[in-house]
Structure to design on (131 residues):
């Protein structure tokens, strides 16, 4: 494999960011750094604990299924994730983010981060917490 091919593969599988526009303002959704990933895992893990998790096997879920699952499981906690990825205060988010924007944000998050892996990690952490 050449260096050029390797770089192209990395760009495909690990994009550096995806642009979203919310209320006329441009944001770049980037992969979570360790600190942010841990916060997101905690949020999703807490949501999973509160939710009767009766979903299909994770491997069978499409990206749309995963996005719907994240919205359903995280619910009101999503605003905390939006604060992390957009760097905006809750008041601004509450006043400017539409449902269509939410789908775009979560879709971008799932594309630059391995969302099924994050959900699996959150489930594993939740299971350990129950033991």
């Amino acid at each position: 494999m050449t260096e050029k091919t390797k770089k192209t593969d990395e760009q495909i599988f690990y994009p550096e960011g995806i642009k979203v526009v919310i209320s006329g303002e441009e944001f770049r959704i980037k992969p979570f750094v360790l600190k942010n990933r841990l916060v997101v895992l905690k949020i999703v893990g807490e949501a999973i604990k509160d939710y009767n998790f009766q979903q299909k096997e994770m491997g069978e879920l499409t990206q749309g299924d995963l996005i719907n699952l994240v919205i359903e499981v995280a619910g009101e906690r999503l605003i905390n994730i939006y604060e992390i990825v957009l760097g905006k205060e809750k008041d601004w988010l509450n006043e400017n983010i539409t449902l269509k924007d939410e789908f775009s944000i979560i879709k971008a998050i799932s594309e630059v981060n391995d969302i099924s892996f994050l959900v699996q990690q959150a489930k594993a952490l939740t299971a350990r917490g129950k033991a």
Remarks:
- Residues 77 and 112 are 20 Å apart (CA to CA).
